[in-house]
Write a structure and sequence with these properties.
The chain is mainly alpha-helical. About 85% of the residues lie in helices and about 0% in strands.
Length: about 120
Amino acid sequence: MEYIHAFWVGGLICALVQILLDRTKLMPGRVMVLLVCSGAVLGFLGIYEPLKAFAGAGAGVPLLGFGNTLYQGIRKAVDEEGFLGLFTGGFTASAAGISAALIFSYLASLVFQPKMKE
């Protein structure tokens, strides 16, 4: 059942985002920022963790999960370091994921020939 819950929750998130892209004039970058901010807000409200426990990767992989990771890192850093944690917590929590994305995209650019859009 874990796979089924992950599939339908992740699919629902993706379908709602696709509807948002198709029905509004929002650019994809703004929709991605909206997802990250929504993940942080859901984490703050205490809704995201039960959703992730229910749906697993269906809720953890989309950009909502990245927003929640940023929120959790900031909350932990503020508890440990005070006000300075507002500025360092998000970087600490997301450093591994961001670094991996940069490294793997660089390696992909070495394997494939990137081209500019015309």
